[in-house]
Design brief:
By secondary structure, the chain is of the alpha/beta class. It contains six helices and ten strands.
Length: 234
């Protein structure tokens, strides 16, 4: 949160912090200088998907900057260019702020390695410029269960893209009712599959050739919290 405040340059109308415990959250008000700030304790662990669908209705703005707690911000001005891209292209589901990773690119476009619903895009990158914003498209190829697209990593989302389907949990119930809704990787993969099939795509501010770092670094890969057993759920 301290790095967000340090590097964010966009006015925030309303902040919502959701904590899956009974931890005292009042200290956060000293860090986040928002005019309106909701601090919410769920007491028991509900899972990201349920928390989002429960508390997103509190949002009254057309955009939400969704942020998980295991990222640090390293560069200024990331919300403004993200909104500019979203406003210019209705097919963009979100703009990635992480640095580019070549591992995201498919090594093969063999149709036998892809799901029936995969939409194959050309195996090349294109750089775009919108006013003073440079960004890149990324192949949205899905290999088996994997896809690159929708993410809950730090990024701006249109509230409309959440509400038009009745929430994220409704999407999961439709495209993957068998999946574990507490498994963040499964949730993102299946939301990604849904949005790709619905014609959406992803852009990134840091592309493969511009040698530009991203705007955030993750700190969570080695600090994973195991999934709760069924009896622990509310």
């Amino acid at each position: 949160m301290e790095t967000f405040v340090k590097h964010n340059t966009y006015p925030i109308e309303h902040g919502i912090i959701v904590e899956d415990s009974d931890m005292d959250l009042e200290w956060i008000r000293e860090i986040l200088p928002f005019t309106k700030l909701d601090l919410i304790n769920t007491v028991g662990r509900q899972g990201q998907l349920k928390n989002i669908d429960t508390y997103y209705p509190l949002i009254g703005t057309p955009y939400v900057f969704h942020c998980e707690d295991d990222f640090v911000f390293i560069r200024d001005s990331f919300i403004e260019p993200s909104i500019k891209i979203l406003e210019a292209d209705d097919s963009c589901i979100n703009v990635w702020l992480t640095e580019y990773d070549p591992a995201w690119e498919p090594t093969s476009q063999d149709p036998n390695n892809l799901t029936n619903h995969a939409r194959i895009l050309p195996p090349y990158h294109r750089q775009f410029t919108l006013d003073d914003v440079t960004f890149w498209n990324v192949n949205n190829c899905m290999h088996g269960e994997w896809g690159l697209g929708f993410t809950f990593q730090p990024s701006v989302h249109r509230m409309e893209d959440w509400s038009r389907y009745g929430g994220y949990e409704a999407i999961i119930d439709h495209v993957a009712p068998w999946s574990n809704k507490l498994d963040g990787a499964q949730v993102e993969r299946n939301l990604c599959r849904h949005y790709i099939m619905d014609g959406f795509r992803t852009f990134m501010l840091a592309g493969p050739d511009d040698k530009q770092d991203g705007y955030v670094n993750t700190t969570g890969h080695q600090r994973h919290v195991s999934l709760p057993i069924k009896d622990e759920l509310a």
